[in-house]
Amino acid sequence: MSTPFTPMLEALSRQRGVRASLIVSEDDGLMIDSSLRFGQEGERVAALAASLYRKARLSASAARLGAVAFLQLDAERGRICAVGGRGDLVIVVVAEPAANVGLIRVELLRALESVT
Amino acid sequence: MRIATTEPWIEAPLARYVEEARARLALLLHPSGQVVAQAGFTRAIDVMTACALASAVHATSSELGRRVDGKPFRGLHHAGAERQLYLAPAETARGAYICLTVFDAASSLGLVRIYFDDLCRELAAAAPPLVPLREPALAVDFERDLNANLAAMFGRS
User: Fold this and answer.
1) How far apart are CA A5 and CA A7, in angstroms?
2) pTM of the model
3) Please, which pLDDT band fits residue B154 given cuts at 50, 70 and 90?
4) Does B110 touch chain A (CB under 8 A)?
């Protein structure tokens, strides 16, 4: 099933090193749409990434740092990047360790601009 | 959080679920309304009431699912102003149980659902071999069994 977010997610997934891209509801932790490669557990990634983003947003707010612009989590076998701030929506990318984070960041922020 | 069960094999999976899903309250019961395990409740009367209501809601939503979708709905979610609940069945070799989970802004429906799936898997794996089936819950036995389970959990005879 195609949604208004599908072209944006497919464009993100075409970036080199990107394994999955998802758009998630921050409040519910539910996946709205995704572009996943085989083997990715979309619902699990969506729920945990939304929780992570929400906690980062609350932490930034508690520390009086303002809104979260870009969230990056580096792990042993990859990284998770997320942007939000358009209502309840969070855009999440799962990428390989060697992926170009700068490019992913630009594409994520551009994707966020396209989300109304 | 205090966890009490009438069947010891349930305790570890339920404790893990409550911890990981950041649940405020959790209740595992037979579809008849008999309590099997609880986490977070402090009064037996609250457990008894929640079991009766959860059992009734599950029966209603299951029948509604059969009517509109040909099979029972799997899970039910209600969102309140501050707290939400998720009600869903967990199948084991010992039959189906119903799990009522209450959570707040510290968690989310997505988290509760993924960890509930884990709970179902763990309960299915931990359930001891099937023993002779329980007698159907008859009205004459129901209150006695219910009181015995509550007494086991809250330490009263």
Assistant:
1) 6
2) 0.84
3) confident
4) yes
What are the two backbone dihedrals, phi and then psi, of residue A95, each rounded to the nearest 5 degrees?
-130, 160
Residues of B in contact with A42 (CB under 8 A): none
| Largest CA-CA distance found in chain A, in angstroms, rounded | 41
Tokens 């099933």 identify what position?
Answer: A1
Domain A6-114 has CATH 3.40.50.1110: no
Q: What is the DSSP string of B42-55?
A: --HHHHHHHHHHHH
Query: What would the pLDDT profile of B11-47 be if each residue is shown by its tens digit?
Result: 999 999 999 999 999 999 999 999 999 999 988 889 9
At residue B87, the pLDDT reads 97
| Structure-model confidence comparison of residues B113 and A37, the more confident one | B113
How far is A83 from B4, CA to CA, in rounded Å? Answer: 41
Beta-carbon separation of A43 and B111 below 8 A = no
Residue B109's nearest CA partner among A43, A76, A83, A84 is A43
CATH (one of 2.60.40.420, 3.30.365.10, 3.40.50.2300, 3.30.450.30) for B3-129+137-154: 3.30.450.30
A70 contacts A63 by C-beta, under 8 angstroms: no
Q: Which residues of B touch A25 (CB under 8 A)?
A: 110
Per-residue confidence band for A38, with pLDDT thresholds at 50, 70 and 90:
low
Q: Report the complex ipTM.
A: 0.84
